[in-house]
Amino acid sequence: MFYGLATMEEEFLADNLFTFVAIDPCTIDVSEGDALYEEGLFHFDEYGIYVFGGPNWSEDRKTICDNFSQEVCDYADSTSGGEPVSLKTNVHWAQNTIQYRFQEYAPDYMEGKTHTKLYDLSSIKKVPISIWSGELDVTCSNWEARNTKEIIGERVTHFRTVRAADHGWWGGKVVSDHYLKELERQLINPEGGSNETSFDPFIVN
């Protein structure tokens, strides 16, 4: 959605999106080790692998584990536990992580053309945004979420750091009525309230 707001806000989203709540978002995620990408992920297509967790994943996984290191095999396992994800999506994330740039996909990355056009988050001027970030997240770090907030500026109308939450918290432990009520308040009135607070999901303020 950050990509959409940076590229299509004026022509479409400003009139069709009331607000955007970003739950533990990444623009650049935390590197799992450049070698996993450069010696593994970036070469999967050479073996006919184009999707993680797809209909042929058991065979694709065997191909990866037979032809790459155990570390690359473990990486493939760690990225295939949910919905199917295209190889190109993960390659794009990895390119941005290595270059530390929120940029367009680089089709000629392996030929040394590693920099492409940046997505300009500072161009977001209309749609109000609420960002929720886990204090202990090591995948989409709280520091990176704050950096995204600073780049966007005043259109981030709410920023919540959830105490003791890691990246997995959102998928399995969001059971707090307090959290849901606060989220509902932001959805109803995205322009109101304090901009940044530390949030304990199990304590009612």
Radius of gyration: 19 Å
Helix content range of the residues, please? 25-40%
The spatial strand order of the largest sheet comes to 1-4-5-6
Given helix and strand content, the structural type is alpha/beta
Number of strands: 6
Number of domains: 2
The percent range for strand residues is 5-15%
The biggest beta sheet reads: 4 strands, parallel
How many helical stretches?
8
Please state the average pLDDT score. 91
Distance between the termini: 30 Å
Q: What's the shape?
A: globular
Key structural traits:
four-stranded parallel β-sheet, single chain, two-stranded antiparallel ribbon, alpha/beta, 6 strands, 2 domains, 205 residues
Description:
The protein has 205 residues and is α/β, with parallel strands linked by helices. The chain has two domains: 2-27 and 121-199; 34-111, no CATH class. Helices cover 39% and strands 12% of the residues. The chain has eight helices and six strands; from the N terminus they run αβαβααβαβαβααβ. The chain has helices spanning 2-16, 34-38, 57-67, 70-78, 87-99, 142-152, 169-172, 177-188; strands spanning 20-23, 51-52, 85-86, 129-134, 156-162, 196-199. The strands form two sheets. A four-stranded parallel β-sheet has the order 1-4-5-6, sandwiched between helices. Helix 6 links the parallel strand 4 (129-134) and strand 5. The mean pLDDT is 91.
